[in-house]
Amino acid sequence: MKRCEVWALGAMFALAACGGGGGAAGSGAVKSSTTPARGGANVILETEIGPSGATNAMEAIQRLRPSMLRGRGSAGMDGGSSADLIVVYVDGIKAGGLEALTPISAISIKEIRFLSAADATTRFGTGTPSGAVLITTKK
């Protein structure tokens, strides 16, 4: 008789464990096919840019990850903002400051990535005191 009680007790725990996790799938955990894939805080994917309505790289960043435009470093010696010191690279080639984002058509972009000042310095050397925005275009 004790065996039946232990079994019944075990069955209750098993049943409780199974019942506890069953509701997660129907509660919105499954990603909708209409929701574009999203990169992390420092990445904008091609699938996000189209639905945003942006026409160029600057608009895409402003609409989707405006924090990328706020440099993560100290202000320049001349009192300029740290955002003035963000460097833009297009397909690995230095394009200039943030003004270089405006002429880049949104439909030509595969990915936009922000690198912190430390990561940008490691990758490109000195000259990126507030970080870098990397644009990868469709080829």
Structure description:
By secondary structure, the protein is α+β, with helices and mostly antiparallel strands. 31% of the residues lie in helices and 17% in strands. It has helices at residues 2-21, 46-52, 57-64, 117-124, and strands spanning 43-45, 87-90, 93-96, 109-115, 132-137. Strands 1-4-5-2-3 form a five-stranded mixed beta sheet.
Q: Give the helix tally.
A: 4
Secondary structure: helix percent: 25-40%
Outline the low-pLDDT stretches: 1-30, 74-78
Q: Indicate the mean pLDDT.
A: 78
Order of helices and strands: HEHHEEEHE
Distance separating the two termini: 73 Å
Nearest-angstrom radius of gyration?
24 Å
Fraction in beta strands? 15-25%
> What structural category arises from helix and sheet content?
alpha+beta
What order do the helices and strands come in, and which of them pair?
Layout: H1 2-21, E1 43-45, H2 46-52, H3 57-64, E2 87-90, E3 93-96, E4 109-115, H4 117-124, E5 132-137
Parallel strand pairs: 2-5
Antiparallel strand pairs: 1-4, 2-3, 4-5
Q: Brief overview, please?
A:
This protein is of the alpha+beta class.
Question: Which labels suit this protein?
Answer:
single chain, 139 residues, alpha+beta, 5-stranded mixed β-sheet, 4 helices, 5 strands, 17% strand, globular, disordered N terminus
